[in-house]
# Entry
Amino acid sequence: MGQIRIDTPSRSYAVHVGAGLLADLGSLARAANVAPGRVHMIVDAGVPGEVVARAADALAGVGWRLSRSNVVPSEADKSLQTVHRLLQEVAGAGLERSDVIVAVGGGIVSDMAGFVASAYRRGVSWVCVPTTLLSMVDASVGGKTGVNLRVGGQLYKNMAGAFWQPALVIADTETLTSLDEREFRSGLAECIKHAMLGAHAGDAGLMAFTRAGLADVLDRRPGPLGELVERNIRVKAAIVGDDERELAPSEAGGRALLNLGHTFGHAIETIDADASKAPSGFWPVTHGEAVALGTLCATRLGELLKTVGEGTFDQVRALVGHAGLPTTAPGLPGPEAVLERMAHDKKAQGGKLRLIVPSGPGLCRVVVDPPREVVLRAIEVVRP
Ligand code: GLY
# Structure
């Protein structure tokens, strides 16, 4: 079992990682000075009933009164309408300023629950209990919360939200054993991203560990899986701790580096694809699958811009493939359409794209306004 401190200017808190931790949720929250009268749980409908019951029992066991909202996670319903409904339910449950919201589930639910916590009575505490690999290694850590917006018929990812750090994160790796295979593999996309950034966070060996341990992780062996989760959270903690609000200048990289693969990925995730050209069930891709595809585009872009040598793309593609993630997107519209969608990215500045590319082993950098023709060529690598 590990404990990682997240130190940001707005808040310091602990992330606990280990198998079976849910049973200690109440006592760990108490020890972290979370002491509400009431707790409102915001629960992902995809979480098995026994996991939710374990969390609820642990919270009730320390004497807290519970109420609950359920959320069926989907990118379409990761919306202000759902947040409005949740705020009404939290208010209806009578939560006061000193009470607490507990999010149980994947990244869509924790992003919305955190946003609800940031807005309710101008801000209440929240505790995050991630139950997917993706939410453990990424969404639960660092305080980015929010929703998608629909603008002119198109989905703009995470376009409205707040930085609102949780008071505590409890990652019980036992919850990963029952996770759906596609969902589990999707989380590995963020792990590959962190491995490509490890040297920025004092873990240059994370890529070698990820490659060597992948078979064991895919078998969900508790030892390697726990180590993977913990080392990934440490990478994210180090990067977020240095640049909580993603304000570092492009030359410094900072938190923006965590967007590796995401500008390409968000476009792939939200674009209208021709599903008839892909195997059944391929579209819509999950967020993690889109990030994997986006990371491949970013790596090829790095090769084309010569920030890394030729051959890097083949290595990353092999790892993505071994992780059981897609390396091509049949039915993806042409690169012009993908690039057009990328221009909506919230990280663009002054109308110029800011993309993250690999720049060495475990290292990445920001490139601002790369040549259009080169970006189009980079997108081609995921078109079969
Ligand atoms: N998922 C990217 C970040 O938290 O900054």
Remarks:
- The longest strand covers residues 154-163.
- The two ends are 43 Å apart (CA to CA).
- The CA atoms of residues 97 and 124 lie 6 Å apart.
